[in-house]
Amino acid sequence: MSYSPLSVETLAARLGGVEAIVARLGRDVSQWRGREVGDGNLNLVFIVESEASAVVVKQALPYVRLVGESWPLPLKRSFFEYHALMRQEARDPGRVPKIYHFDEQQALVVMEYLHPHVILRRSLIAGVVHADLGEQLGRFLARTLFRGSDLSMPTSERKADLALFADNVALCDITEALVFTDPYWAAPLNRHTSPELDGLVAELRADVDLKIAAQDLKLTFCAHAETLLHGDFHTGSIMAHGAQARVIDPEFAVYGPFGFDVGMLIANFWMAYFAQGGHERFPGERDEYREWILGVAVTIWREFVAEFSRLWRTERTGILYPRALYEDQGHSLGAEQALGALLHRVWEDALGFAGVELHRRILGLAHIAEFETIADPARRAPCEAKALKLGRMLAVARNSLSDLAEIHAIARRLERGEIG
Fold this sequence. Notes:
The protein is an alpha+beta fold. It has 2 domains: 11-112, Phosphorylase Kinase, domain 1 (2-Layer Sandwich), CATH 3.30.200.20; 118-415, Aminoglycoside 3'-phosphotransferase, Chain: A, domain 2 (Alpha-Beta Complex). Helices cover 50% and strands 12% of the residues. A hairpin with a 6-residue loop joins strand 1 and strand 2. The protein is globular. The termini are far apart.
């Protein structure tokens, strides 16, 4: 059967012959109940339930859903999402949904229904605390990034994987344009939500140092194929319930620099921090929650460093920094020196990528719910302006910022209005 988009009405007929799905939902498709729940920018997403169980069905559309048919997009992105999920499951078991079925021709993946998990963004809007969140996310980053690189993988396997994901051209092109270039000029699909930001937006787009920094970061993203990235790792790509976090939606997977996923994720917590002023009923109501958000960012980086370092010492079996050059010659301190230098570069890259993420989510095409759900533009614009100013500092001064304590001191001053 040639590709055809699913609908609630056609789910049972189209999927009723797939044994992996029938085994979970039962053979009586008349008892299946389906609903479309996709709220993202690209795809159709359905939940299909029966008395026995439930599954999620995700199908790519041949265009960008957010924009429409005027922006065509290859269906093969579901192929990359499937392969990325399989690799992430192998590298950090239990952190991504189980895959039950993949149909390349129909561009669909059938996977575990995560219930009662919710998109983490919604929790951050509602002021919900999730225990151990930073620990889980930091370890996921370390395990997937380390184990997907030449630090760990057999070189032939890694090069074959690099070639496979290099074909994810269309989604990589979206990242390269929407993250690193479009926010810094009047691109046709750009938007910002309030005229109150016009002056700051004009200032940022006239900032030559910022534009140089953004293009330097784009060069790093394009040229440093260090590891397999999630590629779109933000708080909308995480499902959370209680003390459990699960990672979804790696269709932007591509090989790139170690710091990219790290910076993009932490930037989304900083945006959530600045957005709290638009969601509290009175000034200061969410001060404690703001500090919890900053604490999650600290924990993500701390756990990433700790787990990456542990893997460096126990699983460094690839072609990079071989033990033959260090430990086997009694140079264990040299191995630690090399690790420290690598992590320092990851830190600086991550800060830069965080900076441009703060900009593109406010100035570009794809915005975030933390800001968008602040109905009053007069409340929303100051929240966004603070994030834009921090983004500029991170991108331009990434080589001179020493730690998160320093950055969070700046964030708090911005939040209090002490930095203009």
